[in-house]
Amino acid sequence: MSSDRSKDGGLPEKTTSTKSNKGQKTTVNIGAEIARWESLKDQKGMNSDVELATFLLNRIQHEKKTDFQSCRFKKFRENLIWVFQDLEHKIIVFLKNELEKFKKILKKENTEYFVQDYIDDMCSIKEAALDITLHFLKSMKQDELADSLKDELVFIHQRKLKSNLKRKYQCVFEGIAKQGDSTDLNKIYTDLYITQGVSKQVNTEHEPKQNDDSRCAESQEIKIECTNLFESPEQGKQIKTVLTQGVAGIGKSISVQKFILDWAEGKENQDISFIFPLPFREMNLKEKENLSLMNFVSQFFPEIKGLNLTRDDKFKVLFILDGLDECRLPLNFKDNETWRDVSSPASLDVLLTNLIKGNLLPSALIWITTRPAAATKIPPDCVDRVTEVRGFNDALKEEYFRKRFTDEEMANTIFDHVKQSKSLFIMCHIPVFCWIAATVLQNILEKINNNTKNQAEDASITLQESDTENIPKTLTQMYTHFLRFQIHQSRLKYDGENRPDVSWDKDAILSLGKLAFQQLEKNNLIFYDTDLKDCGINASEASVYSGMCTQIFKEETGIIIGTMYCFVHMSIQEFIAALYAHLFLDISKKSVFDQESTEQETKNEAMIDMLKTAVDKALASDIGHLDLFLRFLLGLSLESNYPLLRGLLTQQDRNDESNKDIVQYIKQKLGENLSPERSINLFYCLNELNDQTLVQDIQTQLREGSLSSADLSPAQWSAVAFVLLTSEEELEDFELEKFKKSDECLIRLSAVIKTSKRALLSKCDLTEESCSALASVLSSDSSILKDLDLSYNNLQDSGVTLLSEGLKNNCKLEKLRLSNCGITEEGYKALASALRSNPLDLIELDLTGNDPGQSGVRELSDLLQDEQCKLKTRFLKSAAAQEACECLTKVLGKSPLLLTELDLSEDKLKDLNGEKLSALLMDSHSKVEKIKLNNCEQTEKSCSVLATVLSSKTILKELNLNNSRLLNSGVKEICEGLKNSVCELEILKLSDCSITEEGYKALASALKSNPSHLIELDLRGNDPGQSGVKELDDLLQDKKYSLETLRFLGLIEDEACQYVRGIVGKNPLLLRELNLSERELGDTGVNQIAALLQDKHCKLNTLMLHKCGLTEESCSALTTVLRSNSSLKELDISNNNLQDSGVKKLKSGLENTNCTLERLRLSDCSITEEGYKALASALRSNPSHLIELDLRGNDPGQSGVKELSDLLQDQKCQLKTLRFLNSAAEEACQFVNSVLGENLLLLRELNLSEYELGPSGLKKLAAVLQDRHCKLNTLILSDCSITEEGYIALASALRSNPSHLIELDLRGNDPGQSGVKELDDLLRDQNCQLKTLRFLGPAADEACQYVSGIVGENPLLLRELNLSECELGDTRVNQIAALLQDKHCKLNTLMLNNNSITAEGCAALTSAFNSNPSNLIELDLSENKLGNSGMKKICVLLENTQCSLEMLKLSDCSITEEGYKALASALRSNPSHLIKLDLTGNDPGQSGVKELNDLLQDQNCQLKTLRFLSPAADKACEYVRGIVSKNPLLLRELNLSKRELGDTRVNQIAALLQDKHCKLNTLV
Length: 1564
Description:
By secondary structure, the chain is of the alpha/beta class. β20, α36 (940-950) and β21 (958-960) form a beta-alpha-beta unit.
């Protein structure tokens, strides 16, 4: 054995083995091998050799097997790699193709093609590719892209859903089909009559009873196609929730089924992405579960799992909630919590209420179907549209039968039979009953035809001609035949039995009947397993009942797990319940209503008790849910019906008395105070009992016309109602007077009124008692009443209030007549409220002859103004009033009854007869208190109409005839009406009616005849003559007259009159002059006063409005005055901001030939050139009156003054005085005119040089300058001896009128200390246009500019000028000298240190100072090389007696002894001013110092300081003087020996010795 393995029990590594090739021997060391064997055995812990050998053999076999498997796996692995490589390639190619499609879908490229591709070739692998794509998109955070892709491929879910819904809904199970189990819905479907509901309440009557109302006309209904339920008739309005109601079997579920099928087949409503039908009967089974909406829908429709319903912006979803009446959930809309999250679990009740309210999936569409009684479970504000399935109208009934039978002859025969039975034809309103009738009659007709064929007779015999028994004529017979037929068919199909007699399963029918009866008492339509168990029916057996008799009892399995049970139609449940009652009595001899009682003596007695109890219970039901049950119960009690139930019920031994007993009991009940609905049902019951006695009696009386005088019992009245309702003839008009005029008769026949189009109840002695019954009629869903006439009945407000309740709810009435019904304001308000609640149908309302009170008409009138209101209301009692109302309505575009003010201005009255207008105004409905007839061409005839109105009893309080040309004749006609004692007119307005004195006198006379009412009389704008006003004014003063206001003036004029009266204390109408100056009248005040001035009563000659805050607006008013008032002669409107625009408005007044104004004052009115031109133009147009014009203080511009000045030269112009300036300015103007011969105001340049103007002349000239009429640009006043005062006057003038003067020359004048500054400051004023202000000659001005450039200031304004070290030189000094010698220069200090000035410059300076010596106080010429010649020039200045120089600095000026002597001489000759003299740094020579030093000793000399030395030298000089008592400057030898001078003193003395003034020869 050889092995190199040592791990896991392998052989030891160090073994000796010898191997040889084939044919060679091998040597083995046995001892060594044995040793290895033993060692291995010990290592493995084995006890025997066998154990070790076995172990080693197993190990060898395992290794061999492993080697084989390894080889096999290696081959498999190599193959697997290839397979998966190929698989990977295929998957990648597939996914790439799918991803490419997804990409193109997202890019909207050929989307339709790809969608179709998916639909045609959809498989799970493609859906998996989509899932993979969506997964990775979301992992990449591309949620939006993933959602978009899902939205585009929503058809994946839609396709599955449509497929399943189509399979579920494409067939309809209609009974036990003879040839198969179902019928294609599309083949047999007949359109149902669906209307838009207008009912605002739910009809709680028994639903089968509503079928009797199928006769109602359909003209008033709004028909809606089932496919268009969610289409809104109004643009922009969305229909989101639709509630469709209809009685049981009427076709609601079939409509839903057809709607879904059309969608699933792609025919209709393809804009809806998903439809989810959720029947309540199935949802009831989820009542106790908590689910999210997503999970809930997914459980019903697994095919849409994964669909994101919250993406409601991408697709439209419709939830169909079918059968609300079968819902066992509370649907607590009020208290349920708000729920918005579709993924969060909640109770089913919370989910549904929030879905319907729009909290969950707000954009989802909701369609709810229900029976009427359950409709109230949904709040009205949650519903956008209410529709009603009306079933089949007459045309659709016929269509159904023709579709039902392919044999046209059979269809005709069956339909004719149904139509001839009123009761059956009415029931065929319900599609289910059509099917029952068709089933029964087809079976009977086939039997008839078979029999006739066998007898070789005509096969076309009709049902009526047949001798076959038991052809159904009543409901009971029809349903009995139906039951027999279905049981027979069941036996034939399931058991193969085909016997002539029915084989009844009594136990099954008993159990089924018990279920029907018990659930009917509870008014339950849907049953569950527990309900079946309670009746002894096992859930497992339910299908037996369903299969045995499918049409009778249905088993329905919902989409979710759960089974529900119901009868095909409620009427079948009621029939089976009635059959159960008879079967129970037959078996137990007890009444089903009293099962605990002891057994009756006879079945007959028990039967009678049971039937009576049933009658009582049916009458006790508010909703009539036992009405049809009672019909069946009574019908089954007839012996004639027992043969049909042979084998199920035993033959009863009944006699005629028993039948009469129950008939009499019903008639007795008819005599009680029953509702019309219950009474009518009892007649149907009598019909089932074949009793026609009451009906036949009433039919006889109706034919004879004797009902109106008959005294009928309640039962007879009910019979009348029944006969009328079941008559073959349509009752168009119901006339109560043909029966009996009473409340009782109306109440008894209210059901008949409901089926009539017109109810004529006029003059029938009705009271409010009838109104309650009529309200019920009006609010009934089934009422077709269009026209109701209640005129001349004492209904009063209480009755109308009751009637109004009916108008509010579902009322279809179009015409309502309530004339002369004793209605007042309260009743009108009730009507208005009702009509606001239901404004759709009523178009005519007659309320004539009532008394609406103050606000009654207004209540209804406001309603009439609503654009949606179609109502036409008649209030007026007479034809004349109505004609007047209609005439005025056409003229005014609005009914005059809506108005308290009648505006007939502009001849709107036309040819309206006065009597008719009076009739209108006298009607109690008319609230006209004011009539306007302004601007009418009144004739004598029209005034006669008004006189008639005034003479009538009306509430007219005001008559307005302004601006109507009445003349005196018209006024006299009106006065005839005013004289009448019934006239209660309070206000009469006759302004601008061309009334003169004669008319005023007629008015005064009329008012004296009837003084008690008129309180206001307006006569503005008339011309009363001299005594007209006095006539009426005297009337005003008499206390016995009511007249309080007599108005001659307009409101504004009168206000102005009162205002002026308050100021001046007098009536302005009596004044000739009125001064209102300096009162803040403003434009408003002037407008008032202007209106006063225009009145003919105003005779003012002079009006002064100086400084009254007027603007151009006032000018408009004053212009009107100038045009109209010829008495105004003088107008002062000075100091008002009229401006040019105001003057332009005045212009049109001034140029008017009616203007006679003589004096016009317009000073300070901000008038410019444009305004002056306008005035000139006006005066040229009308030159004959104005003689004085004052325009001072205005700004006339360049040519304004000339325009008016030229006008003065016009001989035609009467203008004598034209005033531009004040008196001072005028004087200056005259002065210039005398000097220059020109008008100063027309000049642009004025040169008055060298004229001695003096202060007063200059002030006058300044007055001209400050006037805006002055347009001077240049003013030259050089050498005019103008002083500071004149300068100040000029500055002030230019500030007042800164806009024109641009150059002012004042050279050669003496402005004083502040004159220059005044004008210089003016230059800095931004408003000042002055560009050139000349004080100096050219040279001086140049110097001034030069100096200003250096120092940055105007030297004329300086007192000190420092130009030291500016290197001026003699040339610049010569310029500066020209400035210094001008009188405008007022320098006190001049510093010219170190400026290279020589004697030449010095000469110029001294010459300048000699010319203007009075100001200079200090002069510094140090460090200039003046020399002695320059010094001598200075000395000339010092000698000038006008020189006031006090300080003179001449240090370092190269002055020697000669100069010193000249200086000393000058100071001796004029010693009065100089007090300080600095001569340091000069060389005075031997005697120079002495000359000046001696001068200091002269008492006449003012010199205080004479400086020769520098400070250090001067200090040494004083020190030495103190020692030697002599001036060292005058010594030649100085001995300071033995003095303790020290270095400090020696330094001082050294400074002295250095100075040129020191002349020491010897120093000791």
